[in-house]
Design goal:
Elements (H helix, E strand, L loop, with lengths): L2 H8 L3 H9 L6 E2 L5 E2 L4 H13 L4 H13 L4 H34 L13 H11 L2
Antiparallel strand pairs: 1-2
Helix pairs in contact: 1-3
Length: 135
């Protein structure tokens, strides 16, 4: 299939497909006229690449992991790399959850225009500050 058809099928831009090719994530063969052509499984590969990018993996990490994923081969190194990426994502989720909770506190305290919408410190910091201020 040609690049435009792959872009339509996979829901990514032609520019993104060219980038994936530059990064070694996607392979195309060229026609005599120089047009890119992709095999049928390329759409599934693009969706996998998109999922991995969405999880925050770099193109370098994706390039390292794709051969293992496609070959359905698990090595101690690939499992360790995947576990490290999962741990990184878990840390991001924890940080984002903490940020969301703090925003919820700010929203709750800023319910009206005359509330002043002051910054609400982290619960631990606020508790420590009120403890320090106690006589």
């Amino acid at each position: 299939m040609r690049i435009g058809e792959l872009a339509t099928r996979s829901g990514v831009s032609v520019r993104a497909l060219r980038y994936y090719e530059e990064q070694g994530l996607l392979a195309a063969y060229r026609s005599d006229s120089g047009q890119r052509h992709y095999p049928e499984p390329a759409a599934d590969r693009v969706q996998l690449i998109q999922m991995l990018y969405g999880a925050g993996l770099s193109s370098r990490t994706i390039a390292e992991l794709l051969p293992c994923v496609e070959a359905k081969v698990s090595t101690p190194e690939s499992r360790a790399r995947l576990a490290a990426e999962r741990d990184r994502i878990d840390a991001q989720i924890t940080a984002l959850t903490h940020t969301r909770d703090r925003l919820d506190t700010v929203i709750a305290h800023c319910g009206t225009p005359d509330s002043g919408c002051a910054w609400i410190a982290d619960q631990d910091v606020a508790a420590e500050a009120s403890y320090s201020a106690a006589p």
